[in-house]
Amino acid sequence: MHKILLCKTHSERWPELANGVFFELKDNGLDVLAETYDSGRLEKMLASGRLKHELIFIPAGNRTSEGFRMAQRIKSMRPDARIVLIALEESCAFEGYRLGAFRCIPGQSMENPQKFIESICAICAELKAEQNFTFRFLEGKKTFSPKRLVYLESRLHKLHFFIYESEIHEYVLYEKLDNIEKMLPEEMFVRAHQSFLVNLAYIRHVEKNYLTLKDNFRIEISRSRSASVREKYANYVEKNPKI
Known about the structure:
There is one protein chain. This protein is α/β, with parallel strands linked by helices. 35% of the residues lie in helices and 33% in strands. It has seven helices and 15 strands. Strands 2-1-3-4-5 form a five-stranded parallel β-sheet, sandwiched between helices. The longest helix is centred in the middle third of the chain and has 18 residues, at 113-130. The protein is elongated and about 60 Å long. The relative contact order is 0.09. The model has no long low-confidence stretch (mean pLDDT 82).
């Protein structure tokens, strides 16, 4: 379960946005416990060592603001804490990343619920990418991160998981590919074929009728999915230029 803290602000839209944060996390398949706080309560939680939340949303104006100073205190005492700064000034976003903030959301987006929700969806994707899954394969119980899942293949009523563990290992269970696809981060995987779901990070290049993985294994792309596969891979490369 992901425990998150949401800061109370003076924005008239905050109740709506706070609810949006909670429901978007839920809708993205994340098990969350959400609480709200004011600065006084946060101070007490931090002083008593009861600040155990995984995500902490803090509004901050600039590096001298109360919110930014609080973020600094939290990071000094809990380096593993994921702080989401709601940057009320542009300079705060830059300073926030220098501080080690998990994400900086422009304060203007608080007046535009759709943009704010899009930012929360991006956070959901990152959390889901780090969320481990445990399955009982025919080979035994196995826990893994989606980042390690190279691709899935549905074959003869069985689902074959190809997982990278210094080298690629194959694990098998009885399950439908559609069901597993719903559990995984949508931004990380592409459905190349009715029988194949592929991790975008392991693709070397994509052509019209097939894609090639980094180990040179080729996977067929169905005709009906060709355009969408190429578009999704191009978007992924644009956002992840180092791959």
